[in-house]
Amino acid sequence: MDSATATSGSPPKTRSLVGRDPWTTPLDEIDLAHPGIWQANEFLPFLDRLRRDDPVHYCAHSAVGPYWSVMKYQDIMAVEANTAVFSSEPTIGIVDVLPEYTLPMFIAMDPPKHDEQRKTVQGVVAPANLKNLEGLIRRRVCTILDNLPLDEEFNWVDRVSRELTTQMLATLFDFPFEDRHKLTYWSDVATAIPGAGLIDSYEESLVILKECLSYFSRLWQERASKPPGNDLISMLAHGPATRNMPPMEFLGNLILLIVGGNDTTRNSISGGVLALNENPDEYQKLRDNPALIPSMVSEIVRWQTPLAYMRRTATQDSELGGKTIRKGDKVLLWYASANRDEDAIEHADRFWIDRPRVRQHLSFGTGIHRCMGNRLAEMQLRILWEEILPRFHKVEVTGEPKRIYSSFVKGYTELPVRLIK
Ligand code: HEM
């Protein structure tokens, strides 16, 4: 049974929007949190509809409980700036998981604890450290690209996007390289919806993530007994704000860094190839002028919007866009919509690799929680394209991509491609 049509009392829950007309569907039946339209790639006109007709929208009957949707760029900026009224606690996903299955992590904390914990780990993505990582990333990119088959169909997601981001994570944590695929597995488990394939329940996911905890605890012990190093585990083990973290908080912050650095970058790598194929003039512009790579990278991240939303929870009653949001209400900030908001972004529906003010998108969020790894993600994408362009005339998409069943992580499980010299 479709989870969003399951009823546990009246009134009935909203159903999937797949195949429905976005412009005539009654507003109270629009439930963006249902994964259906995201997997079917039918979400964009529903975002347009809400931006036009009800930019601060209340969905009362979702299977995941009632919630607000904030659709406009400026409204999201205002909410993110007001952390006292719109809290990141207890979680930034739509589902309120039982406390025993909730992992504490600084993305889901408010000041001052958020600020202290973020400060402890952000050194790993400081400009000097990124510079140190650049050579290693480039070598890894070259090896991956040089081992790809020519003129033969393969899945870009597995062979490039996943592989590269997994190797990158292993580097950040100084994680045993031969075990690096465990990192991707844990990341997938942490974001999986029970019943959608990978796991059957949150209980099962927690059991798997505890294996992750025990693996990392061993590495933590080793690093804690040595002088401070530049990898993330060593930073957590020695940082004054993190060294005495309770085990579940350590696990939560590990998962944050694993998921943060993994899915999002992976899906931007796949999404970029797809966007360039769907916009051949922009691909040609890039071939003619590789100096556009940095700008194109930002445009790819906007276009893909790898995380469709972040959630906040109201700590008190307040007004937004003429609506009254009540204390305790869930509020979803739809970056996927803000990034297509014509009032903030010129020709927002156009993939335009040399657009003006190209970094002014909301894929990385804004305010105190703005993505800590944004420069690292951009650097990976930049190096990848710097190495793709001299090697291949085209990374040609040869079939329909398969998209993830999620309204939160926007990405792909398959992208069939062929390399043309
Ligand atoms: C936070 C997106 C890559 C680590 C976030 C947020 C978003 C985001 C939307 C929340 C922002 C907010 O609430 O305002 C992305 C995207 C990426 C990416 C689209 C790639 C294209 C990375 C990488 C890392 C990372 C590579 C690895 C270090 C984090 C962390 C936070 C975060 C630690 C929490 C920041 C905080 O709460 O202060 N990211 N991210 N992200 N990201 Fe990323």
TrEMBL record:
Q: Which GO terms describe its molecular function?
A: heme binding; iron ion binding; monooxygenase activity; oxidoreductase activity, acting on paired donors, with incorporation or reduction of molecular oxygen
Keywords for this protein = Heme, Iron, Metal-binding, Monooxygenase, Oxidoreductase
Region (Disordered), start-end ranges = 1-22
Metal-binding: is it a keyword of this entry?
A: yes
Q: Does the keyword Transferase apply?
A: no
User: What PROSITE patterns does the entry give?
Assistant: CYTOCHROME_P450
Top-level taxon of the source organism: Bacteria
Q: Where is the composition biased (Polar residues)?
A: 1-13
Q: Which SUPFAM superfamilies match?
A: Cytochrome P450
Its needed co-factors are: heme
Which InterPro entries does this UniProt record tie to the protein?
Cyt_P450, Cyt_P450_B, Cyt_P450_CS, Cyt_P450_sf
Family to which the UniProt record says this protein belongs: Belongs to the cytochrome P450 family.
The identity of this protein, by name, is Cytochrome P450
* Origin species: Pseudohongiella spirulinae
Organismal lineage: Bacteria, Pseudomonadati, Pseudomonadota, Gammaproteobacteria, Pseudomonadales
